[in-house]
Amino acid sequence: MIGMQIPTHIAIIMDGNRRFARRMMAEPWRGHELGAKKVIDVLKWCKDIGIKIVTLYALSVQNLFSRPKDELDFILNQFRAEFSKLFDKNSEIYKHVHENKVKIRIIGRLSLLPADLQELFKKVMKETSSYSNYILNFAIAYGGQEEITDACRSIAEDVKKNKISVGDINEELVRRRLYTEDEPYPDLIIRTGGEKRISNFLLWQAAYAELFILDKMWPEITREDLEKVISEFNARERRFGR
Question: In the CATH hierarchy, which top-level class contains the domain 9-235?
């Protein structure tokens, strides 16, 4: 995309898997299987375009308690299968991550997940911790309000232990206690599926992000859709509160 300003960080709310499956007259959660296959395509497109950081909203805290058990079990098993591929040298995702030196972070209240998934996620993050060319965040068992609450709790603990004073608390300190830590905030947030809400996603980091709503469901988006978003991003004037 010659002459375009390329966003450093994009975040995506991957919505519409179940609705897409219904349209295909399949079990609703089967859409998650199709959605998982779309992830590697989108990551390749982002790399080709020059986007350095991608954050994908995969499962909210609320989903853990609101989704039917069969569907939730399917999603968690899918996480097990897909993240295990990061140790399979013949898989596409293994080649993409290791050839391009992609650091993977799984962000959220991971303690709410089954113990084996927690261990798998820790293993994945350790395996890619030395990489720095690209960053890929998966928001799993994630909530923006929960993230801010956890940051506040961390800061309060340090005040209680006299490690910092109340006067030390500022926006930069809060930023460093977020799950995304030192990463640049997203330049744009894309939501597929047509819904016009942020759904408790990156509430602090999204303060000045540009929002894009795509009517297409997550499994059906194309590289052309992503490139159109980048083109519109370039046409907007970013004011940052000015």
Answer: alpha beta
